[in-house]
Amino acid sequence: MRFIVKVIVVAFALWLTTFIVSGVRLVPYEDTTVATVFTYLLIALIFGLVNAVVGTFVRIVAFPLYVLTLGLISFIVNGLLLLLVAWISDLLGFGLVIDGFWWGVLGALVLGLITWLIGLIVRPSKD
């Protein structure tokens, strides 16, 4: 259940990111509302899987760079992960389109901030 909520939160944050960052947009597989929502959910699922598998590996291997740059390399890593998601979705024939590397970095920053803010609201309280 928690995984489904996280995917929905990332999909909603991605939807908001496409409105805020002009270099990040989504191409659904059909021009219907249901197909657009489903595409956002699929991209959020792909982003979660890429972040869990590839992102974890990169963060472990690049730990010295994180320490050396005081964590600023995380912007570059997150931008590259978002570009990887765009590439994977392009292979599927629909999905995320990013106009360039720096749009990917900015999109990842905005996506991370929005996801964090929504997570503060959605997170269940510990009683």
TrEMBL record:
Protein name in the entry: Membrane protein
Pfam family, any one: Phage_holin_4_2
Transmembrane segment boundaries: 33-58, 65-88, 100-122
Transferase is among the record's keywords: no
Keywords, in A-Z order: Membrane, Transmembrane, Transmembrane helix
Keyword Membrane appears in the UniProt entry: yes
Organism name: Agromyces bauzanensis
